């Protein structure tokens, strides 16, 4: 089994690679957004993205993800679970686990992700 497959099997929720726009900053920060990036992959449980900001594991971030089906970005909070230096200067790979969200928001997120998972699966079989 390849290393990627082993990691994939540990995940609770299906992940998709889709370039949704994401803004992020330290939780509770009154200064503006610290960065904007594109989501590398996302699931109901969390997402990952590249940034020039170095965050430590267990740090909580405020996030806003722009989904095409929503008028406004979806505000979320996430705890950093991975933070590794990338190959470029000041480039970091960050993986966050979404923190508790209310049922309507979770249902909305799940519905959006289900749509894109099905769309991705259809494009693979075409």
Cα-atom radius of gyration = 15 Å
Strand content bin: 35-45%
Amount of helix? 10-25%
- Strands across the major sheet, in which order? 1-2-3-6-5-4
Task: Characterize the largest beta sheet: strand count, sense, and whether it forms a barrel.
Answer: 6 strands, antiparallel, barrel
Protein structure class: alpha+beta
Provide the residue-averaged pLDDT.
88
Instruction: Figure out the total of helices.
Output: 2
Order of helices and strands: HEEEEEEH
Q: In total, how many beta strands? A: 6
Q: Choose one word for the global shape.
A: globular
Sequence stretches where pLDDT stays below 50 over 5 or more residues? 1-9
Give the termini distance in whole angstroms: 27 Å
Question: How would you describe what is shown here?
Answer:
This protein has a 6-stranded antiparallel beta barrel with strand order 1-2-3-6-5-4. The protein has 2 helices and 6 strands, in the order αββββββα. With 126 residues, it is of the alpha+beta class. Helices cover 24% and strands 37% of the residues.
Q: Briefly, what is this?
A:
This protein has 126 residues and is of the alpha+beta class. The chain is 24% helix and 37% strand.
